[in-house]
Specification:
416 residues; 34 strands; mainly beta; 5-stranded antiparallel β-sheet; 4-stranded antiparallel β-sheet
């Protein structure tokens, strides 16, 4: 009876918030779990049970992979955003759809199928794929090396490792004496920058025209930025090396700096002070005036470290502040680059007035925020940012970029 009562109360809460949620979640969907049962949360705010399946894919686009036992064998198929079964679970393995194609496996053979379940290509012997198309290319495995296949089923040169295409380039590497020697490959399978990237032990995909590269100098690991022509970005201080730098996004990169703790002699006791800062770097090497600075003092016996982590999502910069083992979060809109004001802590809000005060406090200061996602499936096809907030009761809800709960924290799990 208690479980039935809980489910009824959950549905009532969902009905209360569904009108407000529709505007934020229009065209959207998520997988949520209640009482260990998966549900499809659709664009109308309705929860449709997926209990008839024995597993739900956690990476999805236009369609969702579902799993169901047929005797002793687990078979794979697909459903759409409304829970309708579009391809019955008949495959031995299936991967997410992308660009209207999906990789499936049957009888040890790999195929490409379209959304109607029709086979459009059969892979040659010993060529496999565990991926989906990205920017018109599919990563495939060929005799323990990796290639790309385009929509004409043409294969690229083979490498020991590759990253999916991003902004028209794929990052590739071969191993030489245990070291990764990087290159980039364009959409015509032309390989370049092997010589320029050779000094670096780390390289990332191209983001906003620049890729992050890194190497050890002395006891410190430094990052730099290189473009597809092999040029290195130099900042306004004639510096090319950054101890902590994140990828560019919409013209800006996040640069983090800090300095060792130092001591101040106070009137009563010794005080420890630590400074950490985060700032934006633009593609011309200039630093817009926005800057996050944090200085915090405390008695040495009670001192707790404070760290700043952050990255871009959509039009916002997302910061995670860690102090004393706990975390709190901020969102700063990237257009705000003309102020040096300290970012305010993100305080979440909910329209559910029936929550006890203790639960409201937990909602405002969540235990963690995860799955930040800029997705085209929300707001009638317009890109929107959604996050999953985990509160101290260990339940999850969905929030938007303003910090407003569009679905309260009533789920055991949420997958966006």
């Amino acid at each position: 009876m208690k479980k039935k009562y809980l489910i009824i109360m959950t549905l009532l809460i969902l009905l209360l918030v569904s009108c407000q949620a529709k505007t934020k979640f229009s065209g959207g969907f998520a997988i949520v779990y209640q009482d260990n049962t998966p549900y499809l949360l659709n664009s109308e705010g309705q929860t449709l049970s997926l209990a008839k399946y024995d597993g739900i894919g956690e990476v999805f686009g236009k369609y969702i992979v579902v799993k169901k036992y047929n005797g002793q064998k687990l078979k794979y198929g697909y459903i759409d955003h409304n829970g309708k079964e579009v391809i019955k679970p008949t495959y031995d393995m299936a991967y997410p759809f992308s660009e209207d194609l999906a990789v499936v496996v049957k009888g040890g053979t790999y195929y490409l199928i379209n959304p109607k379940g029709k086979t459009v290509y059969q892979f040659k012997d010993d060529i496999k794929s565990y991926d989906s198309f990205v920017e018109g290319f599919l990563k495939v495995e060929d005799h323990h090396q990796y290639r790309f296949m385009n929509h004409n089923y043409e294969l690229s040169p083979a490498f020991d490792g590759v990253e999916n295409y991003h902004e028209g380039y794929a990052l590739c590497y071969n191993l030489q004496d245990g070291k990764k020697v990087y290159s980039i490959m364009d959409q015509n399978y032309q390989v370049s920058l092997t010589t320029e990237l050779n000094p670096y032990s780390f390289a990332d995909s191209v983001y906003d025209g620049w890729m992050r590269v890194g190497r050890q100098i002395g006891d410190t690991f430094y990052y730099s930025f290189m473009n597809a022509s092999g040029q290195i970005l130099t900042d306004q201080n004639d510096n090319q090396l950054f101890e902590d730098a994140h990828n560019f996004h919409s013209g800006l990169a996040l640069i983090f700096t800090g300095q060792p703790y130092f001591h101040l002699r106070g009137q009563d006791d010794e005080i420890l002070v630590s400074y950490y800062s985060a700032q934006y770097l633009d593609k011309n090497g200039k630093y817009p005036s926005f800057k996050y600075n944090d200085a915090r003092s405390t008695d040495k016996d009670k001192y707790q470290d404070k760290m700043i982590m952050g990255d871009f999502v959509g039009d916002y910069t997302f910061f995670r502040i860690i102090t004393g083992g706990a975390s709190y979060y901020t969102l700063n809109k990237k257009e705000i680059t003309s102020t040096s004001a300290i970012i305010e802590e993100l305080s979440l809000t909910t329209n559910n007035q029936s929550l006890p005060q203790m639960e409201k406090d937990s909602y405002r200061k969540p235990y963690s925020i995860a799955y930040l996602k800029e997705s085209p499936f929300y707001k009638d096809g317009q890109s929107s940012i959604l996050c999953v907030a985990r509160v101290y009761s260990d339940y999850y809800g969905i929030i938007d970029e303003s910090g407003q709960y569009i679905f309260d924290a009533i789920y055991e799990r949420v997958i966006l």
